[in-house]
Amino acid sequence: MTDPTTPLVRLSPVLPILARLTFAAVLLQYFWSSALTKMGNGVFGLFSPSLGAYAQIFPRQMEAVGYDASQLGVLHWAVVVAGMWAEFLLPALIVVGLLTRLSALGMIGFIAVQSLTDLYGHGAIEHAETLGAWFDKTPDALILDQRAFWVYLLLTLVVMGGGVLSLDRVVFRNATSARPASPQPAP
Questions:
Q1: What is the predicted pLDDT for the residue at 129?
Q2: Which of 39, 129, 160, 168 is the most buried (most CB within 10 A)?
């Protein structure tokens, strides 16, 4: 049994809140700004992505069709729209702490796809300084270094949830706990 006075046990309610606060301070604006570049014009911009959205997500296919998005199929449209919505919704859900574990897991998947698109779609794999290397003297490579920290932050939320100050706590407070009941001592 763990001693409830150990520092880790005392810090455990604070860690998810700090992780969500760090995410909001460091990555929320990054993802929302990126999503805004994908929106089309007008009221229906959430359903009609910009040309840049297609070029960001499908760079080689866009080059092949002369940057005419109308030549791409409905699957391309669906992926671009889903990516744009994910960049708006998942960070917002993480910050308010609603469906935190699922949202953080979705963001990890998003970052993996984003990284692969940067490496292979945009050719960053050919630039060692962009890819970076672990266990070297420079901690500022875009892909391996920075995104490792992003994923680690999000893994904290996948494992620990949104914390005591989250909408998860409010909305699901009456839900059955996923934790098994403590064994009761025999009489």
A1: 84
A2: 168
> Can you give the three-state secondary structure of the chain, one letter per residue?
CCCCCCHHHHHCCCHHHHHHHHHHHHHHHHHHHHHHHHCCCCHHHHCCCCHHHHHHHCHHHHHHCCCCHHHCCHHHHHHHHHHHHHHHHHHHHHHHCCCHHHHHHHHHHHHHHHHHHHHHHCCHHHCHHHHCCCCCCCCCCHHHHHHHHHHHHHHHHHHHCCCCCCHHHHHCCCCCCCCCCCCCCCC
Per-residue pLDDT tens for 55-104? 999 999 999 999 999 999 999 999 999 999 999 999 999 999 999 999 99
Q: How far is CA 67 from CA 47, 56, 151, in A?
A: 19, 11, 32
pTM, two decimals, is: 0.83
Q: What is the pLDDT of residues 31-48, one digit of tens each?
A: 999 999 999 998 898 999
Residue 97 phi/psi, 5-degree rounding, is: 75, 40
The 10s digit of each residue's pLDDT in 137-158 is 888 888 889 999 999 999 999 9
170 with 98: CB under 8 angstroms?
no
